[in-house]
Amino acid sequence: xxxYQTAGTNARWRLFALLEAQGVPASEADDLVAALEAxxxxxxxxxxxELDGMAPASRGQLxxxxxxxGVTAVSEALVGIADRDFSRRxxxxxxxxxxxxxxxDVRQRQRxxxxxxxxxxxxxxxxxxxxxxxxxxxxxxxxxxxxxxCTARTRNSDGDVIVCTLDAGxxxxxxxxxxxxxxxxxxxKADASIWNDLSTACIPHAAH
Length: 208
Fold this sequence. Notes:
This protein is mainly alpha-helical. It is built from 5 helices and 4 strands. The strands form 2 sheets. A two-stranded antiparallel ribbon has the order 1-2. Helix 1 packs across helix 4 (94-125) and helix 2 runs antiparallel to helix 3. It is rod-shaped. The two termini are 65 Å apart.
């Protein structure tokens, strides 16, 4: 039964999240979920009630009496559970409270994962990149530390967007690069691409 309990709990959280995303008030969401849960229990109670008088005749009258007493006890217990579940209505917001706890737990685990990811990028990925390369820029962007880089970008012959990997403020339109050794001078550079702000399809940077 534990697998059904887990599945039911996850489904309840999912349903509350979907209703919340659609702007359904918490009290109304509680009413809907409580009604569904009470209805499910009521359905089970109906099936149990149908077992009254269904004891195997071969087991005798004493067994039959105990059987019927058991059916009555279980049926009454299920009625009580349905009543309890339906009483969650009227704005008690029990489901919303459960959802809040669940969301807080998920966010805490997400934060822990982000901390681990940031540590990996900072200690493993970033040291393996070379200065003024696209790989290093991407690592810095992932860490939120690319604010000091140039923002100029252009398109290559394949239509791919190329973003400058040099520091902001490097640009000097008259400082032409010696292309053979790849030094950009004051022009923009991203790996093997070198261009100035007058190049075709180039978008000049905002930080000089």
